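step: validate -> pass
step: tokenize input -> pass
step: predict -> running
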Amino acid sequence: MHNRPKIIVFSGIDGSGKSTQLELLYNELFTNYRVFISKIEYMPLNDMNKSLIKNLLIEFKSGIEILKQTIGLYTKDNKFDYILCDRYLMCYLAYAYVYGIEPIELIRKMLFFIKNPDLTLYFDVDVDLALKRIQERDLELDRHENYASLIKAKEGYEKLYRCSGNLEIIDANKSVEEINNNVKDVLIRRKLITHLK
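step: predict -> pass
step: emit ->
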């Protein structure tokens, strides 16, 4: 297909449906293409507080997570056709903003080693609907997933729009099927894929 895998990032606040859409796309791609799923963990951000030293350590630990993911993506060259990322740098920066880290400052620190995605899909959803979806999950509601933190995370994403290349905004207030059709339309329009089911 090509020498380098196409990197597609799924981003958005919790409850936007990004993981569901990633899974749907994976299920459509894997029979005809070599597909790898990559995910960043953000848990260190939940421990941010007023201690400068602790926060610097958390930023460092989070930076290491992003670096590990980036190095992992470089090692996938020639082995996969597509890499689907459940969260990426934009997601980290948006959620860092929730905990008081200015995303634009962090971009300058981290961007030099980040592998640029071929497409970032931002799933834009109303916060009330996102919170309802989170509460409907079988899992226990995370103490950090609340209306105020989701509003702040969404604000963080909106601050990052101008800094994000290859960004497509998906209306995530629609049904799962409608959103999936929008995702596929974008991939075909962007010529990132030739055919889907």
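step: describe -> Residues 108 and 163 are 11 Å apart (CA to CA).
step: cleanup -> pass
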